[in-house]
Amino acid sequence: MSCVLELKNLGFVYGKGTPFEKKAVDNVSLKINKGEFIGVIGHTGSGKSTLMQMLNGLMRPAEGQVLLDGADIWEKPKKIREVRFKVGMVFQYPEYQLFEETVYKDIAFGPVNQGKQGDELDRAVREAADFTGLKPKLLEKSPFDLSGGEKRRAAIAGVIAMDPEVLVLDEPTAGLDPMGREVLLSQIVRYHKERQNTVLLVTHSMEDIARIADRIIVMNKGRLEMFLPTREVFARGEELEAFGLKVPQITGIMRQLKQKGIDVPDGVLTVDEAFSALLDLLQKEGRLW
Ligand code: ADP
């Protein structure tokens, strides 16, 4: 597997030299492979957003390096614009950044800046709209006539339309209703499967990330505490609690059953997995036939 992003001893300090100096990211080193789906979790203030903003050069590290495809992104500061095309960033409440007359133009803004035009541009816009589940007829509307969920999708489509190698999403479902959350997440999963690009998703929902991430970055007080496959992260419930984090509810219930001496497997992540584990158990005990 080839490495797309490598962080080497990365550090960031807010208000350096002032009484409010704050080390937000402290000596983080890790490697992310092409095509991985990475979850990023950590208590509020643990440094997740600061870390993400260093990945595409929005913030310049105080220490260490960000290597994209093996090259230090700050080696030629004039080329940082190209890095921003390669590492697409969706912030919290991205819909506030919509400003064009039509949804189409808003989605086209990034790819036009990249130099796309004609059929190539049209294809990029329409595919991105489709990935986020926006119906083609909405493309000619004003972004301000869309519902909250649709605006969110239009903003995300604008980043996807640039076809970034790495897509970073910071709490993309914040503020959406449960149905809207579910739909948007499944669109992101489909995008990842079909494009096979690398995705980093910052979230407070352990249930969501347990279902979809290959590996998870756990941040605590600016430090990288874990970077492990999802099942291994959630098998360490006690450590997570010490960082102010929880395991998914179903993982906790299965852990409690295990503590009561019931022979269920470790590290169950979803209700479906729990269901089949319990079914197996009942069958083994001859209580189902
Ligand atoms: P998270 O995304 O995990 O909530 P952040 O990266 O936003 O964490 O913040 C990490 C730390 O840096 C926190 O202690 C936060 O208060 C501090 N911080 C974030 N942004 C700023 C800022 N603009 N100025 C000063 N301190 C900041």
Description:
With 289 residues, this protein is of the alpha/beta class. It is built from 11 helices and 10 strands. Strands 6-7-8-3-9-10 form a 6-stranded mixed beta sheet, with helices on both faces. A 4-stranded antiparallel beta sheet has the order 2-1-4-5, covered by helices on one side. Strand 1 (3-14) and strand 2 (22-33) form a beta hairpin. Helix 3 packs parallel to helix 5. 38% of the residues are buried. The model has no long low-confidence stretch (mean pLDDT 94). Adenosine-5'-diphosphate binds at residues 14-15, 22, 24, 42, 44-50.
What's the short story on this structure?
The protein has helices spanning 48-55, 80-86, 103-113, 118-131, 148-160, 178-195, 206-212, 230-234, 237-242, 249-259, 271-284; strands at 3-14, 22-33, 37-42, 63-68, 71-72, 87-90, 166-170, 198-202, 215-220, 223-229.
